[in-house]
Amino acid sequence: MFATVTAVHVVAVIAIAIFLNWIMLNQIDRTNALRFDLTASGLYSLSDQTQRILKNLDEPVQMTALFGTGMSEQAAARLTRIEDMLDEYVQRSGGQLELNAFDPAKQLDKYEEFAQQVKQRHADQIQPTESALKLARDEMEKTKAFCNELERQIKRQLPRFATAPPRITGFMEQLAAYLAAVPTNLQFDAREQQIKRGLQMPLPDYAGLRALAAGPFGQLRDDLLSPAAKRLKDDADAPQTPAALKDVLLNLRDAFRKRSEAIDKLIETFDALQRTDYDQAHERIMGENVVVLMSARRLSVLPVTDLYMAPRSNMENAEPQYVGEEKITGALLALTMTRRPMVLFVNPGPRPAIGPGGDYSHVADILENMNLDVREWSPGGRQSQFGPLPPQPRPEPEPGQKVVMIGLPALTIPGRMPFNPNEPRVVEVVQKHLDEGGSAMLILGPSDMMRIGQPDARAKLLEPFGITARTEAIVMEPVAVGDRTQASPYLQLSRWPEDHPISAAIGGLPGLMIEAVAMEKSDSAPSDVTLTPLAVTPPDHWLETDLDSRDPMEQDADEKTGPFTLVMAAERGDQRVVAIGNKIFAHNQVTQFATLTAQGGALQFVQFPANAEMFANSAYWLSGLDELIATSARSQDVRRYEQIDASGEIAVNVVVLAGLPAACMLAGILVWFVRRK
After folding, report:
1. CA-to-CA distance for 41 and 102, rounded, in angstroms?
2. Model confidence at 441: pLDDT above 90
3. Residue 342: CB partners within 8 Å, gap ≥ 6?
4. CA distances from 187 to 143, 215, 549 (A)
5. What percent of the chain has pLDDT over 70?
6. Where is average pLDDT lowest: 534-543, 586-595, 653-662?
7. For residue 295, how many other CB atoms are within 10 A of its CB?
8. Longest CA span, the chain
9. Rounded to an integer, what distance in angstroms lies between the CA atom of residue 488 and that of residue 495?
């Protein structure tokens, strides 16, 4: 009897386990399921920055993932990762986000509904194009009728031209033949059919339809109407033309001129139609695999290829870096931001600062992905491979657009180039910006000018805010090497003050500052300015004033001991300033310094993520976008394990559905045998 009861219990447990696992894998809505991210870096969780933006969403946004099928296993795995992340967005949005993912080639009803929504959001841009297309189709019909009528008139008049000079007679015969061939040569019927079919598409290619409709009319005017009208007028005015034919020629000329005037108006209508946001959205949507975000008024399209950044390693097996969260969060921000601030990199150096090959392209990309208007300005000119370039005009902001200046450092070569000729111009424009109440970030370092007895003009910009930049010295750190201590200008920081949002958001991320200078609060600091340290050294650091020494290994008695402030934030009303005491703090060489895995050069993690995080958070704070100051997605750029493949997924399913129940059965059988004995 006992054995029977035990067997029944085992079978019941197995049945319940199988049933529950089947429900978990197939029946529970994965969107609302409870999930845990067990990666050390939170790789599959949304960053604090994204969660803060989602929390502040004040209008519904629809996310549509147009993902196809029949792709490689690697591409399918990437799409799965993106879709899982979009599910997480929905989970954290408080009901403001809705996700709709489907294959547009297989689910046409959903695609047509989506297309209708896209067209509704761009109705004001679409309507002028549709009106122009209707006008073009009407003009094609009128032109065909014109050509047929003029051909008949000329043929009826040809016998009267027997007395005219042969040159005029030959021209009239050629003109009749040309008119008869116009509809065929310009493919009017085929173009009308293509326009009709194009307008019936769920998402019409209006840019292509405009080119298709307007294309023949310029050729018609330039090759036939205008030359024919001129030739008819010249022949009518020729002395040898019989008087009886002059009126015929002038009447034909008037007909050609009227048709040419109508075509001119049509061409002007199409020339006035500029490329629209719909055209850009259509071009991206028709690409392969995109994520579309739509609010009540705006739309943003993100191709999946944009969610992966080219690998920063040149090794053969290096993989693209996933930046999907950063891009999608930035697109969400763009839908809700009324006017994006301009971040202006003021560059005194000969090399580009942002864009391809720019020394600060990494941090610039972060700001651009968060929908900031990132620009570069070289007020003193730049050097190119073909010689010096003249000074550039300052990028003009839009009305009401906030401008934040980034005063990039003037990199010099000690002993060879102690003075950058563009530095005075940079200081001048930043000074004017600050005097007008603007916000700015100033990046400083040890000053070669002070070493030759000249004041540091960049440091003087900070004095009105009560900040004294000790640019005559650098901060040194004691480092134990064996049984002795050496001095090092390489300052690795991992603890950041928590009394300011910029530094509090960085948490325990590691950062690096090389040959940094100290920022001190001056005794005459204005009472209306609030100063807050953002980066502080431990107490055992000191200021090395003997910069000419090749081996400053020891602290002199007169050299000041820490702690020192390396980054300082100043706030006066709406005006904000961030002073960074390290010239290469935001340089690509530091912000992209990464450790590579042993498996062929794949990026494992950025070694000093705090540098880029602090720079970006400072730019947000200066722009008044305090809601963006949080741990970003890039700080989670830590690859811990490989993406599970199809065979691995099958193995997991087998273990969950069969392995665990089988283990329970085996345990029950063992218990039965033990109890029986």
Report:
1. 30
2. yes
3. 372, 373, 374, 375, 395, 397, 401, 402, 403, 404
4. 12, 11, 82
5. 81
6. 653-662
7. 18
8. 133
9. 19
**Interhelix angle 206-220/277-285, nearest 10 degrees:** 120
Which of the four pLDDT bands, split at 50, 70 and 90, describes residue 670?
confident
CB 61, CB 97: distance < 8 Å: yes
Q: Model confidence over 319-344: pLDDT tens digits? A: 667 788 888 988 888 888 888 999 99
How long, in residues, is the chain?
A: 677
pLDDT band at 28 (very low <50, low <70, confident <90, very high): very low
Q: Is 288 helix (H, G, I), strand (E, B) or coil?
A: coil
Cα separations (Å) of 246 from 164, 234, 357? Answer: 10, 10, 69
How would you classify residue 87: left for phi > 0, otherwise alpha for psi between -120 and 50, otherwise beta? alpha
Enumerate the β-bridge partners of residue 487. 478
Q: Where are the beta strands (DSSP E) in 381-495?
A: 382-384, 387-389, 403-407, 439-443, 467-470, 474-481, 484-488, 490-493
- Angstrom CA distances, 165 to 93, 227, 236, 239, 557, stand at 84, 20, 12, 11, 111
pLDDT score of 641: 34
Could you read off the pLDDT of 611-639 as tens digits, one per residue? 999 999 999 999 999 888 887 766 554 33
Distance from chain centroid for Cα 267: 35
pLDDT of residue 553: 59
CB 206 within 8 A of CB 279: yes
Residue 559: pLDDT band with limits 50, 70, 90: confident
Rounded to whole angstroms, the Cα distance separating 71 from 81 reads 15
Say if residues 503 and 495 touch (Cβ distance below 8 Å): no
Task: State how far the Cα of 536 lies from the Cα of 548, in Å rounded to an integer.
Answer: 25
- Closest among 556, 518, 558, 509 to 537, alpha carbons compared: 518
Question: Which residues have a Cβ under 8 Å from the Cβ of 648 and sit 6 or more positions away?
Answer: none
Q: What angle, rounded to 10 degrees, do the helices at 277-285 and 108-121 form?
A: 160
- In this structure, how many other beta carbons lie within 10 angstroms of the beta carbon of residue 285? 20
What does the alpha-carbon distance between residue 408 and residue 442 come to, in Å, rounded to a whole number? 7
Amino acid at 45: S
**What is the β-pairing status of strands 565-572 and 575-580?**
antiparallel
Do 472 and 465 form a contact (C-beta atoms < 8 A)? Answer: no
Answer yes or no: are the C-beta atoms of 121 and 276 closer than 8 Å: no
Tens digit of pLDDT for each residue in 122-137? 999 999 999 999 999 9
What are 599's two structure tokens? 């498996």
